[in-house]
Amino acid sequence: MLTLSGQNHTEGSFCDRLSRRNFLQIGSLGLSGLTLPRLLQAEAENPAKKRQKSVIMIYLVGGPPHQDMIDLKPEAPKEIAGPWRPIATNVPGIEICEAFPRLAQSMDKLVLVRSIVGSQSGHDAIQCFNGHDPRKLTPQGGWPQFGSTVARLQGPHVESAPPFISLCYPCTHGPYNEPGPGFLGLSQSPFRPMGPTRHDMVLNGISLERLADRKQLLQSIDNFKREADASGMMTGLDTFTEQAMGVLTSSELAEALDLSKEDPRTVERYGTGDPTKFIDSNGAPRVPQSMLVARRLIEAGARVVTLNYSKWDWHGGKNNSIFKREAEDFPVFDQCVSALLEDLHQRGLDQDCTVAIWGEFGRTPKISAQVGRDHWPRVNSAILFGGGMKTGQVIGATDRLGGEAVERPVTFPELFATLYHNLGIETEHTTVEDFSGRPQYLVEGHARPLPELI
Predict the structure, then answer these.
(1) Could you give the CA distance from residue 436 to residue 438 in angstroms, rounded to a whole number?
(2) Which of 40, 124, 257, 443 has the fewest beta carbons closer than 10 A?
(3) 8 A C-beta contact, residue 366 and residue 81
(4) Residues in the chain, pLDDT under 70
(5) Do 86 and 96 contact (CB within 8 A), yes or no?
(6) What Pfam families is this protein classified in (predicted)?
(7) What was the pLDDT predicted at 232?
(8) Under CATH, what is the fold of the domain 50-194+252-446?
């Protein structure tokens, strides 16, 4: 049976002290989990899907080392270059780290940005999710993240799927987490299958492994519905709430979150990780299957899907050098990102779905005494693909040590202007109102999309 569990509440509680809000949360279903932070206003059957533009944003928690990944400096001194060697890609003249052989053979479908400037220096995810510098003054309530702004401007593509879905795992280090809807208000919050309330409703007695058994899952849902009706728990809930309670068996969203419905060969291609194992305790789990779930959610009608992946804050230390950690993470990253890239192309989504991969900042050129690289906001990097962009190119360049941008500096506002452009949102004149009713532009400084990509 389905078991409800939650914290004690007073106002608006059921007889077992479970709040109405927590009652509407659903989680821990399948490999990905499922919650309902918003009520689905949908009919039993979805309308025919229309072609839509979308974005998958992948946040590399903690700041990835650009000079060990996509901007190697093999001619630099050893204390700068490190042990990794560059390999040729399928685009003449472009090289990346030898630990990414699959991505190297897909370089014609990628864009590498090697010269992001203006990053903040601390572990704050804000800039990665909305493009705004947290050191500058912000409107009351804070800047909304990208997905919230898109949800406000474009709304749902289909009634059965929220426009903005977050697959980000909640990190114990607060600044690693998404900034939220800001001055747009809670109504523009993302649907969060991996959120902190994902355990409010659980399938009691069914492990993650047994959730792959669709028959047992459906039987548990049926039992829950019968018990809920018999106990009167559904009494007083509005129509949309009742529709939300049926999401597991009627919605494309539930199908998208259930990886047991995916071809096992595709799941294997992406790889799987343990969603309960948070890297270094305060990072995100290393969960490649999140990228597959993101693709499935885009197909289900989501406009924006965000996810956080692993932890890249490699300062070194005893038995934990940066190169040991890279040897663990790089091959998994190569496999799942290349799988997502191939998947989008094979399914005809490469012209409509943009993928952006980045972290807070780059890493120091010089390897520290602890065999690590520290925070380096003076240059950052990104990997982009899809969205109908002009791929097979590198934008920008750094100096011989990988410490300064010396060619085509790029800013986060320009990158976000590009994402908005790919969704059909023009940033030069488009505004959203803050709490005071004042119109606010979407990106700082009237930044324009990168002309190299459009």
Answers:
(1) 5
(2) 124
(3) no
(4) 1-50, 195-251
(5) yes
(6) DUF1501
(7) 45
(8) Alkaline Phosphatase, subunit A (3.40.720)
CA-based torsion, 64, 362, 420, 386: positive or negative: negative
Kind and range of the H or E element at 270?
Answer: helix 264-270
Q: Which pLDDT score is estimated for 51?
A: 73
What's the pTM? 0.81
CA atoms within 13 A on the CB side of 186: 2
pLDDT of residue 296: 97
* Location of structure tokens 């590198």: 394
Pairwise CA distance, residues 403 & 380, whole Å: 9
**From CA 49, how far away is CA 314, in angstroms rounded?**
43
For 238-252, the pLDDT digits (tens) are 433 443 444 444 467
Q: What are phi and psi of 408, to 5 degrees?
A: 45, 65
CA–CA gap between residue 162 and residue 373 (Å, rounded): 39
The 10s digit of each residue's pLDDT in 24-40 is 444 434 344 444 444 34
Q: What is the pLDDT of residue 431?
A: 97
Strand, helix or coil at 318? coil
Q: What whole-number distance in Å separates Cα of residue 52 and Cα of residue 299?
A: 9
Q: What is the C-alpha to C-alpha distance for residues 104 and 106, in angstroms, rounded to an integer?
A: 5
Structure confidence at residue 160 (pLDDT): 82
